[in-house]
Write a structure and sequence with these properties.
The chain is mostly helical and 475 residues long. The chain has 22 helices and no strands. Helix content is 78%, strand content 0%.
């Protein structure tokens, strides 16, 4: 056993035991109904609500993908991520209180039943549930695959990582539903931000010992031509789906229902903003320093973006490297847990309870979670290339829900079947872009120089506005 593998094994065991112990303790809070299982009975405090929102939102993309994106494309990566953060805070601050109040008044549990209630289109719930499967289960598989790749790189093996991830998804969710997820998310979120800060402290010291200052690293980014902004098509294509993430992705929309009172909701928004800004700055700074180390000759040029963080970790002390690797596992796990729980809620609430009149929601919920976790693992096991394509496209596939959801929040029940039409028109554009361009669908600009996600949003918005106009006229 290598020294790094020894430390990784020790740290991952601490993570597994600590997270499982917290999930077991969360079980004492009681899970007697689907509302308890999926939205914690609307009883989350501000801290737990903020941490589960943050940990769910920030996946392994940050410490791996965003570091590499900054290294390869420069500081525009920071702008890309800050657009997401600012847009999310704006939506949470404006629509959040309204959605939170309506969730209590109308008993919302699943995100799809909320959208059905907002738009007045019952069929939209089925369309959304199917889209969640198409967009988010492959994305969950990508998280599981990422954990498997870490285990493979460090020695235990790919299949061990996939098995560990799948077992934890089922165990931590089944123990107490979202209570388990929220408590373990707080644990994982603190691990993520703490390890990122420790990593930056080490990186600054290491760079200084090699004669590189942060100012020189930023100068290296600028001299490499990476200080300029991305082409407008690329920037808009990548940021448009993320700007509406808070109202289109079920795992985060559902979290708006959970705070116990308006004060907890405000604290959730505030602390999520603090976490998001700090984590984004830390991660992008790591990418800048890595570019500076390459420019100064300490590192060779790194061709693969996803290899930037692993390359830096080969230079770090093994205990720190192990802690950072486990933070990447934690980020992937928190996202996978939350997605599986939200997707399951749409089927249990909208089909089993509302349409079939089911009376054993907890049993069915546990079964649905296990089935979805195993499905995600099965896809990840074979490492199909389509996972990458669908992961890139997932946010765009969910984007057509933005216009009808926001319109419904402003004027509840005013769209009716226009809500379904708006969603389907946007979906047709998104899927058409995927068929034509594959993984490049988010940045391809087939019409008047407009990227596919923006076209999908405009198409959905046009039908939504038409529906509002018609419904207003009929009144």
């Amino acid at each position: 056993m290598t020294d790094l593998l020894f430390w990784f094994t020790a740290v991952i065991l601490v993570y597994l035991v600590g997270g499982t112990a917290l999930a077991v303790l969360a079980r004492r809070l009681g899970v007697r109904s689907s509302a308890d299982y999926y939205v914690a009975g609307y009883r989350l405090g501000g801290f737990l609500a903020a941490m589960t929102y943050a940990a769910t939102t920030y996946s392994a993309f940050m410490m791996v993908g965003l570091v590499g994106l900054t290294y390869a494309l420069g500081v525009s990566a920071l702008g890309f991520e800050l657009v997401y953060l600012l847009a999310t805070l704006t939506l949470l601050s404006t629509l959040g209180p309204r959605l939170w109040a309506m969730a209590r008044e109308r008993g919302w549990v699943s995100p799809s039943e909320a959208v059905v209630d907002l738009t007045g289109s019952d069929s939209l719930g089925i369309a959304l549930a199917l889209t969640y499967l198409a967009a988010l289960i492959p994305y969950t598989s990508a998280q599981v695959k990422g954990i498997g790749e870490i285990f493979a790189a460090l020695g235990p093996g790919y299949w061990v990582g996939v098995a560990v991830a799948t077992a934890l998804i089922m165990l931590w969710v089944v123990l107490a539903g979202v209570w388990s997820v929220a408590v373990t998310d707080a644990f994982q979120g603190l691990w993520m931000i703490g390890s990122a800060a420790a990593f930056i402290v080490w990186l600054l010291g290491f760079s200084a010992s090699r004669g590189l200052t942060p100012a020189e690293a930023f100068a290296a980014v600028d001299s490499a031509g990476l200080g300029s902004i991305w082409p407008a098509t690329v920037f808009i294509g990548l940021t448009t789906p993320w700007a509406f993430f808070a109202v289109t992705n079920p795992q985060v929309l559902q979290r708006v229902f959970m705070p116990r009172d308006s004060g907890a909701l405000k604290r959730m928004v505030y602390w999520f903003g603090v976490f998001g800004l700090a984590y984004t700055l830390l991660v992008t700074f790591a990418g800048v320093m890595a570019r500076g180390l390459t420019a100064s000759g300490v590192l060779e040029a790194i061709k693969s973006r996803d290899a930037v963080t692993p390359t830096l970790l080969t230079l770090a002390p093994h205990p720190l490297a192990a802690v950072v690797y486990v933070s990447i596992v934690a980020a992937a796990m928190s996202t996978a847990n939350s997605i599986v729980l939200s997707v399951a809620s749409s089927f249990v609430r909208d089909i089993y309870e509302r349409r079939l009149g089911g009376t054993r929601p907890i049993l069915v919920s546990n079964t649905a979670v296990a089935a979805l976790a195993v499905t995600a693992a099965a896809i990840a096991w074979y490492r199909p290339s389509t996972i990458v394509d669908l992961s890139v496209l997932s946010s765009t596939l969910l984007l057509p829900a933005a216009a009808p959801t926001i319109a419904g929040a402003v004027r509840p029940g005013s769209l009716g079947r226009w809500g379904l039409a708006a969603f389907l028109v946007g979906e047709a554009v998104a899927w058409g872009g995927f068929v034509a361009y594959g993984a490049r669908a988010n940045t391809a600009a087939p019409v008047l120089g407009l990227p596919v996600p923006l076209i999908a949003l405009i198409a959905s918005l046009a039908v939504t506005l038409a529906g509002l106009f018609v419904s207003r006229g009929s009144r």
